[in-house]
Amino acid sequence: MKWRLTSGVSCDKKLSPELKGKFYRVVVRPIMLYGAECWPIKNSHTQKMKVAEMRMLRWMCG
To answer: Tens of pLDDT along 5-20?
Structure first.
């Protein structure tokens, strides 16, 4: 699932921020972290995940 495919829900001005946040926590974040327990975790990977998450949240909030 690509982030832009969720833009219909995540960027809809009619939806409340609470609902958008719930959608992000229930749908988007698990997809991003799928298989993460198998990754060799490095600080650079953690930082990239944080950057991607903040970018998506800023995009959702408008």
So the answer is: 766 777 777 888 888 8
Q: Is the pTM of this model over 0.85?
A: no
Q: If 0-12 CB within 10 Å is exposed, 13-18 middle and 19+ buried, where does residue 60 land?
A: buried
Both structure tokens of 31: 């997809």
Contact 1, 50 (CB under 8 A): no
Residue 1 pLDDT level (bands cut at 50, 70, 90): low
Nearby residues of 32 by Cβ (< 8 Å), 6 or more positions away: 49, 52, 53
Tokens of 5: 């495919």
Can you read off the two tokens belonging to residue 62?
A: 């408008």
